[in-house]
Amino acid sequence: MIRARPGGLLRRLLLFILLFSLCFTVLASSVQLYIEYRREMRDIDSRMELIRAGYLASLERSLWDLNQEQLNVQLRGLVDFSDVARVHLTSADFDLVQGNPAPAGPLRIERFALDYQPPSGPLRNLGELEVSTDLGAVYQRLYATGLTSLLWMAVFLCGLAVALSGLFYRLVTRHLKVMAEFARRIAAGEWQEPLHLDKRRGSDEIDTVAHALDDMRRAILRDIERRETDRLALQDNRDELLKMVERRTASLMRAKDEAEAANLAKSRFLATMSHELRTPLNGILGMAELLRGARLDAQDGKRLDALHKAGEGLLTILNEVLYFAKLEEGVSHPEPVDFSLRQLLDEVLTLLEPRALNNDTILSCRVDQRIAEHHHGAEQFLRQVLSNLLANAIKFTEGGEVSVEVALLSETGEQLGQRLRVCVTDDGIGIAPQMQEKIFERFTQASEEVAQRFGGTGLGLAICKHLVEQMGGCIGVDSEEGRGSCFWFELSLQPASGVAEAPPVRAAGPALNILVVEDVALNREVVKGLLQRDGHRVWLAEEADQALQHCAAQVFDLILLDVHLPGISGVELCRQIRHSDGANRHTRIFALTASVQPALVRGYLEAGMDGVLAKPLKLENLRQVLEGHVPVAESLLSDEAMDWPLLQTHRSLLGAQKVQGLLAVLRDSILQHRDALNEAMAADDCTEVAQLAHRLAGSCDSLGFRGLASTLRALETLALANDESAIRRMSLTLDEQLQHSLDTLKGLLQS
Ligand code: ADP
């Protein structure tokens, strides 16, 4: 910043005025002196003229008369004239001098001829008069005059300068100072104080500048205020955006958790369904097996074989699906045992030999000599992987060769075991290069054609990959289309521990006497099989009369009653048992039914049943009943906000434990969504409200929380219509519904 020297402008102005005045004064003085000089000269001229006109005649007369005395008087008279320094008269008779005989200064000398006209005769020259005027005196005067005028001028000019300075300061400089100070304040950020000049008179240029400056200040102030408003708005927006991002992130996290939970639920569902399907399928296969012993004609025998084969195929698929689902769910953990790899290979190859023979394929096996006799590891997993790879090799090779080769990669020490590479090589159809990576993904097959020709689920290799990775190894394939494949895996096996594995012991309750009343033979057999598997003694009855006979002859610990019996229904039969005098009057009776609508269930309970077991029967549920964990009757009552039958159906399909798990997930989800919803509603973030409401409504619906679900759907509709005020009005109802649902969940989870 350039800082002005204080008073710089004023000094320059003064200097300029003084210089100008000096020049002017000098000029004016010169002119004045010149005029004075001319006047002096004129005075001298007029004096000379006076001498010529007034004195010359008398001097000529006195000279004619030779009157010296008179001449002296007259000459003295001339010397008295001002500035006349000397008078000198020369004639033939006289040489008279009056005044200073040798004047010092510059002289102006005037000479007059003295002529006389006698009355008769010609004009005669008598002499000459010389008058010397002292110019020094004149110059002296002129000098004094010039000096005086100069002095006066100087005094005047100084006064003028002082006056002008004062005036300039008053009118300009001090205001400029105030304005400069004002500008500095503005630069320092003090925009509030207006510019105030100490002025009384009307407006001038200074006021114009001052107004312009103050206008500038106001403009800056307005600009700053506008920027501040903009900044605040921006900050608000940014905060809002940040919050929105946070909400979205939380929402995404929830969605991710939900997706993971859904994936897990899907695996569980898959596992449950395959399990559920497997049980009756086993029943069907068992029955088919029994029928094989019966006397059938050739046609029926073939049909039975086809039935058995199809059943077995279905069972294999189900087993794979179930196995994979369980793997995904993480239920299956490798159980390390001591085993012999050679023996394992032997067993697997022996099992697959018939298939290979069917395909005209030769099986061979080579194991590196250095490989230990025994190892410690997940034998089951290894068996599964080897079986899958070998089964595939045999399946995709017709009239060829399949070999298993086990090579030692490295000896990791006696303590650490061995690292092995197992290769299952075939010279079958091979796999296209682009499919070699993909076939390890679940449900993936090399081509549509292969799938149609060879069948399969596309799960075998996915299972192998999963198992090998669980064992800490890696798996891959080298293959050439049409020439064969080599499936390999590498893993490390621990040395055998030498400790014999104890067979797993199943914890089971005491053996019970159980009567099963069921008219469908297959179901009867299945229930019987399940119960006997747990060591219980089972009596079977097809209809009510048979059941009553059993009851008369025997005391049971538990009676399982199919509700839909021919003739007397299960409900009626229960009533009869309860009202009889027999020993089974107080025996626990459970309905075995697929009809779990609340009204019907209430009917079963009123008839004296202790609970309901949903069909198809699950061993898990059965065990719970036997252990005294009865499905809660209260949960079967219906109300407005809850779809209890739906929940009950879930229970019977998925099992109480899984439903409890799902209810806990729903509780957590409601708690999370409640906070997120409140936040989004407070922020009028309709998009978020709609999303959250939609998602939570879906979960609530699936578990029968229909009251909350319908409130959430209404909220979603309002949010999609951007009706913020209606959303706010709804918040109280929503809160109540959420709380009510949480209370219900708490009760359910505690039971
Ligand atoms: P699946 O055999 O039930 O179809 P897999 O996961 O075991 O399922 O195999 C996936 C696919 O990989 C098979 O459908 C087949 O196309 C291909 N494949 C597996 N093993 C071989 C093999 N030894 N030779 C050729 N193709 C194979």
TrEMBL record:
UniProt protein name: histidine kinase
Domain Histidine kinase, first and last residues per copy: 272-495
Domain HPt span(s) in chain numbering: 655-751
Pfam families in alphabetical order: CHASE5 (PF17149), HAMP (PF00672), HATPase_c (PF02518), HisKA (PF00512), Hpt (PF01627), Response_reg (PF00072)
Keywords, sorted A to Z: Kinase, Membrane, Phosphoprotein, Transferase, Transmembrane, Transmembrane helix, Two-component regulatory system
Sequence ranges assigned to domain HAMP in this UniProt record: 170-225
Primary localization class, coarse: membrane
Enzyme Commission number(s): 2.7.13.3
InterPro entries assigned to the protein according to its UniProt record, in alphabetical order: CheY-like_superfamily, HAMP_dom, HATPase_C_sf, HATPase_dom, His_kinase_dom, HisK_dim/P_dom, HisK_dim/P_sf, HPT_dom_sf
Transmembrane region(s): 150-169
Source organism of the structure: Pseudomonas jessenii
GO cellular component, one term: plasma membrane
Coiled-coil regions, chain positions: none
Segments forming domain Response regulatory: 513-630
Domain of life: Bacteria
Reaction catalysed by this enzyme: ATP + protein L-histidine = ADP + protein N-phospho-L-histidine
Residues recorded as bearing Phosphohistidine in the entry: 694
Subcellular location: Membrane
Residue positions, PTM 4-aspartylphosphate: 562
Gene Ontology molecular function, alphabetical: ATP binding; phosphorelay sensor kinase activity
